[in-house]
Amino acid sequence: MFFWVLLSAVVSVDLTTAFFYSETKLECSGSEFVIPLYGFNTISFVPTSREPRTIVFKDNKVEDSRYNLRHGRVVLQEVTESNAGRFYGQNDITRYFETVRLVVKDCSEEVSAYYGDEFRLTLSEDTAVLQFSPNVSFSSDSVTLWNRYSPSEAGRGQVSVGVWILDEVTEADQGHYTQRDRKGKFLSRHRLQLEDNSMEESLYYGDEFRLTLSEDTAVLQFSPNIGLSSDSATLWNKINPTEAGRARVREGVWVLDKVTQADQGFYTQRNSKGKFLSRHHLQVKGE
């Protein structure tokens, strides 16, 4: 009697799940990812971002252009953060079996530089394209900095003897630099982190702000924000050292009388060629 009860229990279990198991795979962004088929006729994907399920593979054909079929396996040639999620196999209309949970990690090589420094990146022999993106996902925000076979695509920076050089880094240069071969295949990725080397100045409302100009200083610029861009203004120019309002220069010292909240920001000194020399960050307390 016990034998028949046990046999009935075993038969009632859905044994199809015994042949499929879920595994978690950790892949670096940019690497290749292989999805085993396990005999499934359909592979679907549900992203971690909780977007709708999409079909990756069905009836021996790849349904998503980012994937290809190779030796009976579905291959994603370049993993990005958008590929993080769960892959499911399906043998019929109603049953899904989770096969792989993909976790994507940024494995970029970390490099750092100070504001205004020169940034140098060695290009490998196989590198044909250098791309930049502020984010690791590398979607529509990526730009081409250098193309060996199409020089007209070049962005900022220049290449000399196999080294890409950026003369002066700013906040806009923080992000990911990806090298690819002639076919667009991922080769390597570096992540540039900018370190702030500003000299901090803290004054009270109404105080006098004194800034010593170096012998090489030709221009003094001001920006209320850390990134000197279109919002920067020239406060003093060695060639035409006019004085206006509360500012003046005395014996190599730039002086600003009675500082206010509007004077908070970044004061940058540059030489006659526009090269960065130093930067001071002023904070005003009170009022």
Outline the fold blueprint.
Layout: H1 2-12, E1 23-28, E2 33-35, E3 42-47, E4 54-58, E5 61-62, E6 67-70, E7 73-76, E8 85-90, E9 96-105, E10 109-114, E11 119-122, E12 129-133, E13 143-147, E14 158-160, E15 163-166, E16 175-180, E17 186-195, E18 199-204, E19 209-212, E20 219-223, E21 233-237, E22 247-250, E23 253-256, E24 265-270, E25 276-285
Keywords: Signal
Signal peptide: 1-18
Compact overview of the structure:
The protein is mainly beta. The protein contains one helix and 25 strands. The longest helix is centred in the first third of the chain and has 11 residues, at 2-12.
Report what the structure shows.
With 287 residues, the chain is mostly beta strands. The chain is 4% helix and 46% strand. A six-stranded mixed sheet has the order 1-9-8-3-4-5, with no helix packed on it. A five-stranded mixed sheet has the order 10-17-16-12-13, with no helix packed on it. Strands 18-25-24-20-21 form a five-stranded mixed sheet, with no helix packed on it. Strand 8 and strand 9 form a beta hairpin. It is elongated, with a radius of gyration of 29 Å. The relative contact order is 0.12. Keywords: Signal.
Strand order of the largest sheet: 1-9-8-3-4-5
Low-confidence parts, pLDDT < 50 over ≥5 residues?
A: 2-19
Apparent shape: elongated
Strand proportion, as a percent range, falls in over 45%
Straight-line distance between termini: 90 Å
Label the structural class.
mainly beta
Major pleated sheet:
6 strands, mixed
Overall strand count: 25
Please name the CATH topology of the largest domain. Answer: Immunoglobulin-like
Mean pLDDT: 85
The name of the CATH architecture of the largest domain is: Sandwich
**What helical percentage do the residues reach?**
under 10%
Q: What is the CATH class designation of the largest domain?
A: Mainly Beta
Rg from alpha-carbon coordinates = 29 Å
Keywords: Signal
Signal peptide: 1-18
